[in-house]
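New to this. Please check both lines:
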Amino acid sequence: MPVFDFKNSPEREKVSECTYTILHTNEPEASAEHPILVLDNSHAGLKHHSCGVFANPANRTAFELKGEAKVVSADILQLDARFVSLLKWLGENRISVRLSGAVQEDRYIVYKIREIAFGGAAKLSAEDGFLQFMIERLLSSHAPEDEAEDEDKEETGDSMKLTSIQSITDFMNCAGRTLPDNIRLWARRNLAVARSGEVSQEERRHAQRALSIMMNVRWKNNYFERIDVEEARRILNEELYGMERVKQRIIETIIQINRTHTLPAYGLLLIGPAGTGKSQIAYAVARILKLPWTTLDMSSINDPEQLTGSSRIYANAKPGIIMEAFSMAGESNLVFIINELDKAAAGKGNGNPADVLLTLLDNLGFTDNYIECMIPTGGVYPIATANDRSQISAPLMSRFAVIEIPDYTAEEKKVIFSKYALPKVMKRIGMHKHECMLTADGLEAVIDIYKNTSGIRDLEQAAEHIAANALYQIEADHVESVTFDEKMVKALLP
């Protein structure tokens, strides 16, 4: 009778056991109230600092505590949705870590993770630096809608010796679905090119550079938290004198954001004479929105390729100014300040550079020729400035809510000079209020000299000149103070 030996038969595939539930939170900092994960401490004996490794999630979602006699396993009970991929990576690579947390009855609340060396010592190396970088990036991101497994996950192992490539690989694996879907797919393709031996060295270099640029941008969603209207009014009053109509339009924009939690469909186009504070308004809006800002001077752009970047087929290819702006800002939500929109030149026959901005302003996404990926622009708020509206094309004009900024009146210039410009200069150079003063006719003389100039830049320069002259007289002639009358002002200022 035949005897069958089943010893070498393949074992039935072990099903992974998931022990945790997902915590959906967008808190920017981890704490005992908003932990990264929660462990079962009913039998593990976890303390404030506990060393060990995360188990391979292919078997079980748990933390293996390194005890004196044996390894004790503690199941993961709750996990922040943003950290699913990171803990999977830590478990698969058996990376030793030290958890910091709080013991609450039979639960261990984890709010800090550090990589450690063998023996439990702190590991102040690039590896822990990478882990802290990943934790910071994940905390600044928004939780994905679900924890669906990424079926096409890139393998972590590769034969490349370049550290930057390995870091990008690890980052993609850890970030998981916190990255936008199209950027994840784009990154996989470019990582394959950067690691391929079948393409030229030039192609690998371009792919690596593009990956470095894209992965260093925090890709946020277009959801905006409520903005304090009173705080916004305070900032506007602090930065701008008068301009009540302009302030009202900005407040209306803020109220709209508070209702929809998204940016308005149209940016702002500020049109007015030079020196009327258009750029200052833009910076004030960025401060109110609590967003990084970047500037683009259209007067220096003479070729659309400067904005869109050049194709990777060229050895000296590089991204355009718009993509570099995202890279400099470090995140996808920003205020894009476009200065001198009316001075965009036609260039060298390749089209009007200003028209390149249309795709950016439509909030449907922007594609850079070098990056070759659709960049989400739902979190971009454009603010443009111009002196002459007749020089702006109609399609471009239709993308903005236009605000005309009139020149200051003589009375407004008096207030700005006496209460803002001159005190600001005196404070900067360390002068006291009584050391430099103007009589009523002296103030009138200052305003009269610059009555035919637009804006307040000339007034600010006049304040600088008067304060500097007063300081000179105090130091050279040993006087206690200087009071400028009409005659002195006319003799001093051109």
In short: The radius of gyration is 30 Å. The chain has four domains: 21-124, 163-215, 229-404, 410-492.
